[in-house]
Amino acid sequence: MKQYTIRGVPLEIEKMVHEEARKTGLSVNKAFVSLLDRALSREAPAGGRKVHDDLDTLFGVWGEAEFQTFERELELQRKVDEELWQRER
Q1: Three-state SS at 62
Q2: How many domains is the chain partitioned into structurally?
Q3: Which of 25, 73, 79, 82 is paired with 40 by a 20 to 30 Å CA distance?
Q4: Is residue 75 in a domain?
Q5: Has residue 19 been placed in a domain?
Q6: pLDDT by residue (tens digit) across 20-68?
Q7: 65, part of any domain
Q8: Which residues, 6 or more positions from 31, have their beta carbon under 8 angstroms from its beta carbon?
């Protein structure tokens, strides 16, 4: 395994790592790696689901007009074409 030196770790992150180490009984190094794994979605948090954030960049990018257009198009797809669903007798 590679070894890294990380400089300039913000105090808040340092506190989080130390708190994680205290809660889990891990070394600071192992706590840091564990938190990094979870942040990168490599492992699910204890008792939880894996968090996926790959679509986050799309959140909130539509304006109202684009949303209304999408809703109209989606509504058209939800209509059942009765002719297609009639059985041959």
Answers
A1: coil
A2: 1
A3: 25
A4: yes
A5: yes
A6: 999 999 999 999 998 988 888 665 666 667 667 778 788 888 889 999 9
A7: yes
A8: 17, 18, 20, 21, 24
What pTM does this model have? 0.46
What residue has token string 């770790």?
A: 9
Tokens found for residue 23: 């809660």
| Long-range Cβ pairs for the range 48-52 (8 Å, 24+) | none
* Six-digit token string for 87: 């059985």
Amino acid at 27: S
Q: How far apart are CA 62 and CA 26, in angstroms?
A: 44
Q: Where are the alpha helices (DSSP H) in 1-89?
A: 11-24, 28-39, 64-78, 82-85
Under a CB-based contact definition with an 8 Å cutoff, are residues 28 and 17 in contact? yes
Are 24 and 31 contacting, i.e. CB atoms less than 8 angstroms apart?
A: yes
Count of CB atoms situated within 10 Å of the CB of 17: 21
8 A C-beta contact, residue 21 and residue 27 = yes
